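Justification of computing resources. Each target in the renewal requires a structure prediction run like the one illustrated here; the chain below, 74 residues long, is used simply to show the kind of job we budget for.
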Amino acid sequence: MSQTYDATPRDFASVATRLRAEFKDVHQEAIVSRCIDAARHGAEDVVGHATPELVERIARQHLKVLALALAERR
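Resulting structure tokens:
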């Protein structure tokens, strides 16, 4: 039986704050927000729930990969 966790956008506010600070010199805030949204939807699709901790881990990986891709383009 799958575990459910209904996170509201406010549950992800601290995730957004941490990731925006971590990637402030690399990505615009809008990009960070989009990665968080994508991570949340992806987690819900794959495992059926999206905890802030899981979303943060996924979004951080997305942002790192995006940073590497941008660096290679330059």
